[in-house]
Amino acid sequence: MYLKDKESNLIFSIMRDLSGDFDHFEIRQRVGQSLLKLLNADHFASYVWDDDTNKFVAGITINMADENIARYDDYYQFKDPITPSLQRRKKATPVSEIMSHDRLVKTEFYNDFLKQDGLCYGMNFFAYDRSSNIGDVRVWRAENKEDFSKRDAEIVNAIGPSFVNALIRARQPNNESPILRFAVIGEKFHLTPRENEIADLLAIGSSDDEVCSKLLISKPTLRSHITAIFKKTGLCRRTQIAQFLTDHSGFISKSYR
Fold it and tell me: Within 10 A of 50 (CB to CB), how many other CB atoms are there?
């Protein structure tokens, strides 16, 4: 594929970001900003699929109104006629490939959600780790521009494998991090791997938003896990978690020997 100098520079910039040490949110944010320039697009969104709640969570948006995104989170994602079909594809796909633009503009989803922020022509790419949808990119152009082309999709597909690998790395815990200590005693208290991760983060004072952001889960899912942690450990307040970890430091030391 022939690339213009500007396109090559932006792709190199994206690849540098995808090889950097960024968290899951920042990877998607940086890629989104670069894709808007690379594809001459106007709006960007990115979500992660949460199997527990059967919905998209951990959203990031560029050039979209907060109140409109709130409506998507609460209502319009459940009235979305295009994303379920796009989600099943593991390659970049213009929206018009799965629904003609003439049909799309007649839907509630378009008129009451997309059109409110000026989104007209879209293209999505969904990243998968085996069978898990671990993140996506949703790029949209305004009405005064052309639909996405096959070439546009090929450019995103060329970036796709690096994007997937970057998201996978961002989801993997750092084995040298001190907040992983709960994983050592988790088996003793029958905590699941996810409950260990959450307990580790709560032990260092992370807020609900920070935990949800780092682990890519919804707040209802987080609350369910916290309830389970309390039940299994006999605790009743988050402020007790760090002390609980300290009280079992002897067990931790033995486990590392």
Answer: 18
pLDDT of residue 215: 82
| Single-letter amino acid code for the residue at 32 | G
Phi-psi region of 54 (alpha: psi -120 to 50; beta: other; left: phi over 0): left
Kindly give the interhelix angle for 150-171 and 24-38, rounded to the nearest 10 degrees: 170
Instruction: Specify whether domain 5-171 bears CATH 3.40.980.10.
Output: no
Using one digit for the tens of pLDDT, what is the confidence trace for 169-208? 887 655 444 444 676 676 778 888 788 888 888 877 778 8
User: Could you say which architecture CATH assigns to the domain 178-256?
Assistant: Orthogonal Bundle (1.10)
Q: Please report, for the chain, the start and end positions of each structural domain, with discontinuous segments joined by +.
A: 5-171, 178-256
pTM comes to 0.70
| Predicted pLDDT of residue 246 | 66
DSSP string, 130-196: TTEEEEEEEEEE-TTSPPPPHHHHHHHHHHHHHHHHHHHHHHS--TT-GGGTHHHHGGGGT--HHHH
